[in-house]
Write a structure and sequence with these properties.
Structural class: mainly alpha
Shape: globular
Number of helices: 10
Helix content: 55-70%
Number of strands: 0
Largest sheet: none
Length: 208
């Protein structure tokens, strides 16, 4: 779903740092295993993968990993999925944060020091570059099946985003499996809540 996503391939010609999107599942896996009692190695691994995303200069994935990690820690701890108490949570966070500061700190602190002199170029306007509601449910322009959905993509007033930015479709099989998991497995509800939060963030300030 991550490595072979249409969003990943759509950005392969201009945003090569997007290759680090494959590091995000590894970070998530380390966080889950650390919280379920696997030990220090997984907490250190989460810091390593977080540092790798920083060194790839893909700050979108880096910030997403931070937000996702915070949601996972809070959600699993509240639902008693966390092995141990507050002291263990703090110890794991210290290991992950310390590893990141050791490996990624030199880059991050150097960049923060340059902020006063930084001039930001104009980026994507969130009113027109945010995800379209339909883009999550119909294949994007880079899909093999794109031409089958041209009327849906452009007939409802037209997508305001480019084909690359609008490639947020993850596939019907993944969507169906997610629905089945949400219905049958209570543990999946945390992931459903996290997915809903990121879904709303991707939609931007106004409904497209």
């Amino acid at each position: 779903t991550f490595t072979f996503s249409s969003f990943h391939f759509a950005h392969g010609t201009g945003h090569l740092q997007e290759i680090c999107i494959g590091l995000l599942p590894l970070f998530v896996l380390c966080v889950i295993r650390a919280m379920q009692g696997a030990g220090r190695r997984e907490a250190i691994g989460a810091g390593v993968w977080l540092s790798a995303m920083a060194w790839c200069t893909s700050w979108y994935q880096f910030l997403q990993a931070l937000m996702l990690g915070a949601c996972m820690v809070l959600g699993m701890w509240r639902s008693a999925g966390m092995s141990g108490g507050m002291r263990r949570v703090g110890w794991l966070l210290l290991l992950t944060g310390g590893t990141f500061l050791l490996l990624g700190g030199p880059l991050v602190f150097r960049m923060l020091g340059q902020l006063p002199a930084l001039v930001l170029a104009e980026g994507h306007n969130p009113d027109t570059a945010s995800a379209d509601l339909l883009s999550f449910f119909i294949p994007g322009t880079y899909s093999t099946y794109a031409r089958w959905f041209d009327s849906e993509r452009w007939g409802w007033g037209g997508f305001t985003i480019t084909g690359a930015e609008g490639s947020t479709f993850i596939g019907y099989i993944a969507l169906i499996l997610a629905m089945v998991a949400l219905r049958r497995h209570p543990a999946a509800r945390l992931w459903g809540a996290i997915a809903l939060a990121f879904f709303l963030l991707a939609m931007g300030p106004s409904l497209q």
